[in-house]
Amino acid sequence: MNEPARLLKLAEYQVLDTAPEPSFDALTALTAYVTGAKVALVSLVDATRVWFKSHHGSDVSEATRDTSFCTHVVSREVHLVVPDARLDPRFADYPQVVGPPHLRFYAGYPLRTADGFVLGSLCALDRQPRELTTQQLELMRRLAHLVVDELEMRRQGLQLRTRQHALQSDLRHTSDEAARLHSILSSASLAIVETSPEGVIREFNPAAERLFGYSAEEVVGKTTPILIHDPAEVATRAKELSVELGVEIEPGFGVFKARLDRGIRDEREWLYVRKDGTRFPAQLSLSVRHDVAGEVAGYLGIISDLTARREIEHRLRHHDAVLQLGSDVARAFATSDSLDLALRACTQAIVTNLDAAFARIWTLDEPENVLVLRASAGQYTRLDGTHSRAPVGKFKIGLIAKDRLPHLTNSVLDDPEVSDREWARREGMVSFAGYPMLLGERVIGVLAMFARHPLSPTVLEALAVVATNAAVWIDHHDRK
User: What would the pLDDT profile of 338-351 be if each residue is shown by its tens digit?
Assistant: First the structure.
């Protein structure tokens, strides 16, 4: 382990000593529920201390590094499970074991970045000795990955905002010196387009060439920025400005300078069009350039591609949905005396949190080797019909049970395993995802969902949370 490099990597995230955040607190709460432990922590190992970004079930915000279980996870770079610390010579004399809070159990998974650095651990602790099942350990591993995703998205967001603010600040203080302007335009990482007062492009920096697919030679002196905009969006904006400013604004370059010419700041999101026709969202920040006499010398646009940010936002929404789904499923099983009611609540949670058209859960009738529909929510709630009893190996549901593997498709109409593609076309079904409910190698059942929009592969991680919990509870119920 290269400790200096690891500490530098940790510093990049700018997370130490920051305020609590709901996304991390939700993950520790879910970790505590999954493991049954009283305490769960997101711990980050600094040079001399272990600092907790989230501490569920504990008021302690940091600990010394030399007597921390988490230090072992970081140094060994593998997960660590200590069923009873009193019986483990590595930890038996630790102050927190010998004295308050008298810790006995510890389980921690490394928070490993994409480039291999272990920043800390997601861990669960308790005052009582305990063992974890294979399913509980697997869920902890998945939750540790989600913690790293949250840290990474937080870091990327900070970097993006810092770079954009620095460049905008620099450009606001740019003088009218042509050499200085050209230097900034050429080296900037954001796309910059500078026009004449009439709107003809005069500068089209390298970042703009890369972003839009046009060379500077193709556009400079030959066209206005209308070339890279959606005409319908420009026309709509012209109507909005006409109402806002009380004058008729024609669709064209005047749309971009109308507010600036009236001393009103203009920064908004637009849909841009590349040379190859592909479209993407971007933020346009506009400013007026004046000459030494104070006359308008041109207009400067800074264009920031929002594609990566939208992806980050999408992933954040997905992670929030996964966390809420896990919470809803846990509540369903914890508060319901009826297994069927709990399963119905699970399918409703899938519909609500994953935007499914409908979701269903089947359990396996082992003597007959048939999947029996036990719960359905969304568009369909009845439990009878063609798929109420699905033999293992038949239909998509039966194949998932037979192969013991999850399945995802975003081309339902082209999927030969969909038995009624006319129904799918009529109802606008686009995607399907299914997940086997397993205990070891034993099939407990299958859960599945249809949606009218494409699904990300990460939806299978969300279904895994439901499948694991449901399998445990169904097996527990059947053993009563």
Answer: 888 989 999 999 99
